[in-house]
Amino acid sequence: MSDRALGATEPVDPPTGPTEPVPVESGRIARRIGVTYLVLSVVLVPWIFYLAWSLPPESVAHHYDVAWPGFDVLLVLGLAGTGACAWLRSRYLAVAAAATGALLVVDAWFDVTTAGADERWVSLGLAVVVEIPLATVCLLLAVRAQDVMAEDARRRGPGQP
């Protein structure tokens, strides 16, 4: 991507069609967001250690029977959204595929780490055979979609719809 698409300080035209990528409006805003997220990631590290040290190894979860089906509804929406975006060749494919890939990784992690002894091998098998490979495909699809949009923007040139 060019410096212009990554957030040059001069204003850019808004997208005009469903295949045009949405540009970052201001380099200054992009830098502030970047710094904020980097700081948050650093602040989160001690919190992770605190939780790992202080949380009990077992806990009763209220509404467990709602949490997992609810999460799976989000996963269904992510898969359907990614499929629809791919089918329609939408500019939102990269976002949908990245979000769905993240949901699949989270699903695999929590399935394996919360499974009882009898269920652990099934959860691990599903994670290795289904969830992680599908998440990898989603993330590769997101990267490829982003590359295609960037190449299309380069080909059209600055200011071209």
What would you note in describing this structure?
By secondary structure, the protein is mostly helical. 70% of the residues lie in helices and 0% in strands. It has four helices and no strands. The protein is globular, with a radius of gyration of 20 Å. The two termini are 16 Å apart.
Keywords:
mainly alpha; 2 domains; 161 residues
* Helicity level: 55-70%
Strand content: under 5%
Overall mean pLDDT: 85
- What characteristic shape results from the CA principal axes? globular
Strand tally: 0
Task: Give the topology string: H per helix, E per strand.
Answer: HHHH
Overall structural domain count: 2
The secondary-structure class comes to mainly alpha
| C-alpha termini separation | 16 Å
| Uncertain residue ranges | 1-12
Helix count? 4
The profile of the biggest β sheet is: none
Brief write-up:
By secondary structure, the protein is an all-alpha fold. 70% of the residues lie in helices and 0% in strands.
Question: What's the layout of helices and strands?
Answer:
Blueprint: H1 27-54, H2 64-88, H3 93-114, H4 120-156
